[in-house]
Amino acid sequence: MKPMNLSNSRISERTIMYKWSPFSRSEVLERAGVLPIVRGEGARVFDVDGRSYLDCHAGLWLVNAGYGRDEIAAAIAKQAHELAWFSSFEGYTNLPSTDLAERLVELMRPEGMAKIFFSSGGSDAAETALKMARMYWKLQGQGQRYKIIARERAYHGVSFGAMSATGMPANRNAYEPLVPGFRHAIAPDRYRHPALNESEAAAFFAADIERVILSEGPASVAAVIAEPIQGAGGVIIPPDGYLQRLQDICQNYGILLILDEVITGFGRTGEWFGARHWALQPDMITMAKGLTSGYLPLGATAVSQRVFDVFRQHEAKGGAFRHGNTYSGHPIACAAALANIDIIERENLVGNASQVGAHLLRALKPLEEHPMVGEVSGLGLIGRVQLTSDKTSRAALPAPLAIGDRIAAEMRRRGVIMRQLPYDILSFSPPLCLTMAEADEIAAVFGQAIDQVYGEIRKEL
């Protein structure tokens, strides 16, 4: 018989009593409880009672290689026995961090990356890039270039610089005043601009970036930071041509382009990096999440040779980039990342994301006929189901009905974990080892849950 303190209900009680959970409302947790996950295998996780759940969100966009990977666990244990920790500061290194830096540069040759700066996670990776962007211009005597252009509904992290770049008011307002110098252009969500075709939308959204740059004065702008696909802001897949136009605008005004690939990196979109879909060569790329598939925290900021050379010239004059996390290049985390990349390459999980992702999208597309669904879109194994109260006007659902929460809860009751996002969006981003049969299961449960909730609330819409 299982001990009482290892039951789902008892762990939920202890969690609520002692743990302050991130991005969670305590009152909701106290009312609804929390679900303890204790084991994972492939694309599935299990609670204390042994019930299986298909994880449609990869544990927060990131378990790319899947759960229960013995190779990664073995690499972690081996490195912990050999060298659990040593700093990379001031003339020292450890072998896994050097090996991983070399591996990442080779992976990102098409993107033009040349150097890797390690950190502890995605917020740190963004913070590093933003500091690099400002210092890059100061070192060239252009200290007036300090402004950063981001987009509405962008998510770049929770540290003060990354949060200032974030375009989600709910994540920012409680902490203002924020870091000065951040501006936001329109999010490239074509669903919100139905009158525009693909080409028109690409031009319209890119023009808004240029409008902000011109409004501020190009000589005051250090960088543009952009997720190839905006994740937490609603899985916004940009219209074809938009990101190429964005890159051209940055090059035209001599502005650095930072791509935030914390979510889209390491196969999520059906390419190694989201940049590759649009043949982009940014000045910097930030990454985390899929870098280790969540087995240990690790972030990284990759830079082009052009960017690094400016810092290198400064160092030759006795200066240094005075920035770094204590755990930068942690040997155990880097060993986990190397094993994770081995699995993604050996099992062609990037190709699987492309093939199974296309199958999942086809299986979900019929939901667009549902009266409460406005759009289904995706790329690789990341996508969204956009809900609406009116398919013509694309009006929002009544907030008091909490329809997204109810659909997510219904899906969980049916054995699929998914995540609801702001703006009436249900997102999906399962592990890249997802099978065709599991994709069909996700699609079936999506449909069943939406039908169930719609039947309960249709008279109130």
Element order: H for helix, E for strand: HHEEEHHHEHEHHEHEHEEEHHHEEHEEEH
Percent strand equals 15-25%
Spans where pLDDT lies below 50 across 5 or more residues: none
CATH topology assignment of the largest domain: Aspartate Aminotransferase, domain 2
CATH class of the largest domain equals Alpha Beta
The helicity comes to: 25-40%
Structure characteristics:
461 residues; Aspartate Aminotransferase, domain 1; Aspartate Aminotransferase, domain 2; 2 domains; 7-stranded mixed β-sheet; 4-stranded mixed β-sheet; 15 helices; 40% helix
Describe the fold and architecture.
- The protein is α/β, with parallel strands linked by helices and 461 residues long.
- The chain folds into two domains: 35-68 and 348-460, Aspartate Aminotransferase, domain 1 (Alpha-Beta Complex), CATH 3.90.1150.10; 71-346, Aspartate Aminotransferase, domain 2 (3-Layer(aba) Sandwich), CATH 3.40.640.
- It has helices spanning 8-18, 26-32, 58-61, 70-82, 95-107, 122-138, 160-165, 169-172, 198-216, 242-253, 305-316, 331-346, 349-364, 403-413, 436-457; strands at 37-41, 44-47, 52-55, 113-119, 147-151, 182-185, 221-226, 256-260, 284-287, 299-304, 373-379, 382-387, 416-417, 419-421, 425-428.
- Strands 4-10-9-8-7-5-6 form a seven-stranded mixed beta sheet, with helices on both faces. Strands 1-2-3-13 form a four-stranded mixed beta sheet.
- α10 links the parallel β7 and β8.
- α4 runs antiparallel to α12.
- The longest helix is centred in the C-terminal third of the chain and has 22 residues, at 436-457.
- The mean pLDDT is 96.
